Amino acid sequence: MAGLFMATCRREFLLSFRRKSDLVNPLIFFLMVATLFPLGVSPESGFLAQLAPGVVWVAALLATLLSMDALFRSDYEDGSLEQLLLSPQPLFVVALAKVIAHWMMTGLALTLMAPLLGVMLFLPAEGMPGLMLSLLLGTPTLSLIGAIGAALTVGLKKGGVLISLLVLPLYIPVLIFGSSAVQATVTGLPLGGYLALLGALLALALALAPLAISAALRISISS
Fold first, then answer.
1. Interval 201-215: pLDDT, tens
2. Least packed by Cβ within 10 Å: which of 64, 158, 201, 219?
3. Taking a C-beta distance cutoff of 8 angstroms, is the pair 144, 131 a contact?
4. How confident is the model at residue 85, as a pLDDT?
5. Containing domain of residue 204, as a range?
6. Percent of the chain at pLDDT exceeding 70
7. pTM of the model
């Protein structure tokens, strides 16, 4: 299974680099939200500093959601997804590898880009470690949960809206704990509790999401 996991990751990386727009679009959207938010609300630095944790986390959530529709779409359109379902290899390993590769191309890039948005929104320097750590633990959970919605809607022509309706309620705990972790570091409160909760959500998602994705793919293809 380790060989299958590595081969799937390698394939996803190669396909991602061939479709550079899928890599760039979430990052551009992430940057645009942070750029336009001060124009629509207020450019006052103190006000933006208070809202920066929530704004960065909402932007990361929406950017991740924007990229989820394409996770299984190309495999479904060229027929390779049906071949994966028919193969004797465990489907949950393939699903986990695809999600991990997706996170490394989008979620990890968003995490590395987050300090720039924090500076643009006047986030205090004390909040940067909390921002990075919370996104590092939270964005994989967002990808795993979003992949379940992508698997359920892969057979639909316009599944992007349905993905949002399915997974946004499940994103709320990650959003709350992630933004609270950043706010805690800014105010000097302990950070460990929020990171522990984000880690627990990630562990739960790693254990259950691949199985749910496999079942959702079988339901979508068979229907």
1. 999 999 999 999 998
2. 158
3. no
4. 80
5. 2-222
6. 96
7. 0.89
CB atoms within 10 A of CB 146: 30
Residue 70: strand, helix, or coil = coil
Higher pLDDT, 72 or 170: 170
Contacts of 222 (CB under 8 A, 6+ apart): none
Helix, strand, or coil (residue 77): helix
The rounded distance, in Å, linking the Cα atoms of 103 and 117 is 19
Taking the C-alpha atoms of residue 118 and residue 212, their distance in angstroms, rounded to an integer, is 34
CA distance 74 to 65: 17
Q: Measured between alpha carbons, how far is 3 from 182 in angstroms, rounded to an integer? A: 38
Among 178, 202, 46, residue whose Cα is nearest residue 114: 178
Total domains in the chain come to 1
Instruction: Give the pLDDT score at 158.
Output: 65
pLDDT reported for residue 221: 80
DSSP codes, 174-210 = HHHHHHHHHHHHHHT---HHHHHHHHHHHHHHHHHHH
pLDDT of 223 reads 60
